[in-house]
Amino acid sequence: MPEDPRLSVRVLTAADAPAYREVRLAGFRNDPLAFVTTAGEYGARPLSEIAARLDPTLEVVNFGAFQGGGLVGILTVLRETRPTLAHRALIVGVSVLPEARGRGAGAALVGAGVAQARAWTGVTSLHLSVTETQDAARRLYERHGFRVWGTEPDAVRHGETVYAQHHLWLDLKESRA
């Protein structure tokens, strides 16, 4: 049976935990410089812990991109809960399987994350960080209107090498990505 080319994005739930775990682990293995968590750290987590974090809450929503019947990409958007930061949301944990890249999954996930942040009352800005080695990811975010507001040197260490992180934000009051 040929692969279904249709791409869909939806909110993930605990039932998606096995597929989510595999995509997340693939991200850590394929792009270790993109993440502060390692595949070993994440792989040691029990599936029950991963499942418990997938159901949406008022502050956290996990999205999955599906193509050909399978999960090919993930993104988490979370709202800050402290009163002085409640106007902000964050995008974290973005990963698309290498074989699914270039087919719109990343763009669809970012669009879903932006839409979720806009749906939260009072959220006026959306933030994320990208390791300096992740040029394609940075360009994806910039296409959605994110702008670099600063670069943190000496941010992430992998082995003996230290990498900077670019911090980006999207002004939800001005742009419509």
Give a quick precis of the structure.
By secondary structure, this protein is α+β, with helices and mostly antiparallel strands.
Your description of this structure?
The longest helix has 15 residues, at 105-119. Strands 1-2-3-4-5-7-6 form a seven-stranded mixed β-sheet. The protein has one domain (7-171): Aminopeptidase, CATH 3.40.630.30. The chain has five helices and seven strands; from the N terminus they run βαααβββαβαββ. With 177 residues, it is of the alpha+beta class. The model has no long low-confidence stretch (mean pLDDT 93). Strand 6 (147-158) and strand 7 (161-171) form a beta hairpin. Helices cover 28% and strands 35% of the residues.
**Strand and helix order:** EHHHEEEHEHEE
Mean pLDDT: 93
How much strand? Answer: 35-45%
Supply the CATH class: Alpha Beta
Supply Rg. Answer: 16 Å
Structural class: alpha+beta
* Total count of domains: 1
**Biggest sheet record:** 7 strands, mixed
Percentage of residues in helical conformation: 25-40%
CATH architecture: 3-Layer(aba) Sandwich
Biggest β-sheet: strands ordered side by side in the sheet: 1-2-3-4-5-7-6
Distance between the termini: 36 Å
- DSSP helix count? 5
Oligomer: single chain
CATH superfamily: Gcn5-related N-acetyltransferase (GNAT)
Q: What is the approximate shape? A: globular
CATH topology: Aminopeptidase
Poorly predicted parts: none
Organism: Deinococcus aetherius
Pfam family, one: Acetyltransf_1
Domain N-acetyltransferase: 7-169
InterPro entries: Acyl_CoA_acyltransferase (IPR016181), Bact_Acetyltransf (IPR050832), GNAT_dom (IPR000182)
